[in-house]
Amino acid sequence: MRGNKRFLTGIIVTGMVSGLLTGCNGEMQTAERKNIKIGVTLYNQYDTYVSQMMAHFNDYAAEKEEETGIAINIEVYNASDSQSTQNDQVKEMLSDGCDVICVNLVDRTEPTTIIDMAEKQNVPVIFFNRELVEEDLERWEQLYYVGAKAFESGIMEGEIAAETFRENPEVDKNGDGIFQYIVLEGEAGHQDAIVRTEYSVSTLIENGVEVEKLGYAIANWNRAQAQTKMTQMLGEYGENIELVLANNDDMALGAIDALKSYGWEKEEWPVVVGIDGTDVGLEAVKNGEMAGTVYNDKEGQAEAMLELAYALSVGGDLSNLPLDNNKYIRLPYEKVGPDDVENYMK
Ligand code: GAL
After folding, report:
1. Tens digit of pLDDT for each residue in 250-275?
2. d(CA 194, CA 295)
3. Residue 128 to residue 212: CA distance in whole angstroms
4. pLDDT per residue over 62-79, tens digit each?
5. 52, 279 in Cβ contact below 8 A?
6. 129 lines ligand 1 (CB under 6 A)
7. Which residue of 102, 192, 247, 273 sits with most ligand 1 atoms within 8 Å of its CB, as the best mutation to test the pocket?
8. For residue 292, what is the DSSP state?
9. Under a CB-based contact definition with an 8 Å cutoff, are residues 245 and 182 in contact?
10. Model confidence over 275-322: pLDDT tens digits?
11. 265: buried, middle or exposed (CB in 10 Å: 19+, 13-18, 0-12)?
12. 151 Cα: distance to centroid of ligand 1 (angstroms)
């Protein structure tokens, strides 16, 4: 059951809109706030998970407006995979007077320009989904991160694969007692891709499953790229592939697209596991195409980001928010299988 939805409802940061407030550009304001402005820049607006998270962010902002009577203006930019475009967008949002800026970094190793610009104008920055290194987040006290613990998702994916292997002897197609697998990886260097790959495999082994890696391919979280890579690997390893560990649901679905166009019966498919619990991913678990997925709590993360952005904009009390080290909000993942998938569907 999705336990995290509305996780903050009981501890919503309310009111605090009159009195001394720190507005954009660090000016102290005494007037009651009638509206706030939040700037958001996405690394790529066509990313399935990120776009579904943003849709919820907008819906939740509308609820928050009703609740508080304060207009929440949200400006959303698409960086289209370019860090320099994203830097320009942040510059624009700062000159537009945004109270807070939410950044889905294109390159997690390149936050410096953004941090320097925001600090100069005293506008807080919430990084989300694409985790930067801790040293960068420590560079100024008004920097935050909202996301999840990547290693948890890898462990859960490994557990789903291990349970499937134990409970369904027929998935060991050649009967050698070893789970032959391939990995479909997200972007090179992305925290989630590195950590999920490592932990899913180590968890299988810790759960007593002997594994053999046949191959891997980078498919940048993308369904079409995953289909191409899977088609190549099917050509190379064919029915020796018994398990596809995908770093996200879109790539798991790309693998399934390849299996379908390869013309295999479903019984001949390898086990496919994903991560995210996007709408399409959940549908594939429900219809038995994927053995399971790991729910990446987009609603919880969107709500946490909105609550934090709101509190920072109106000068609210942050002590009500589940911040670790005054900087991090990380929501837990959840395992999803055919028995409970309906609880996660809209
Ligand atoms: C991950 C998510 C992927 C992709 C990526 C983008 O957390 O699982 O599907 O959205 O973020 O940074």
Report:
1. 999 999 999 999 989 999 999 999 99
2. 18
3. 34
4. 999 999 999 999 999 999
5. yes
6. yes
7. 192
8. B
9. yes
10. 999 999 999 999 999 999 999 999 999 999 999 999 999 998 899 999
11. exposed
12. 13
pLDDT in tens, 115-163: 999 999 999 999 999 999 999 999 999 999 999 999 999 999 999 999 9
Ligand 1 atom at minimum distance from 50 CA: 10
In short, whether 68's Cβ falls inside 6 Å of ligand 1 is: no
What distance in Å separates the CA atoms of residue 191 and residue 99, rounded to the nearest whole number?
28
Q: Is the minimum distance from the CB of 49 to ligand 1 under 6 angstroms?
A: yes
Measured from the CB, is residue 105 less than 6 Å from ligand 1? no
Q: Is the CB of 196 under 6 A from ligand 1?
A: no
pLDDT at residue 4 greater than cutoff 50: no
Distance of CA 311 from the midpoint of ligand 1 (Å): 26
Whole-number Å distance, alpha carbon 248 to ligand 1 midpoint, is 7
Give me ligand 1 centre to Cα 206, in Å.
Answer: 26
Residue 43, C-beta contacts closer than 8 angstroms, at least 6 positions apart: 50, 79, 81, 86, 104, 105, 106, 130
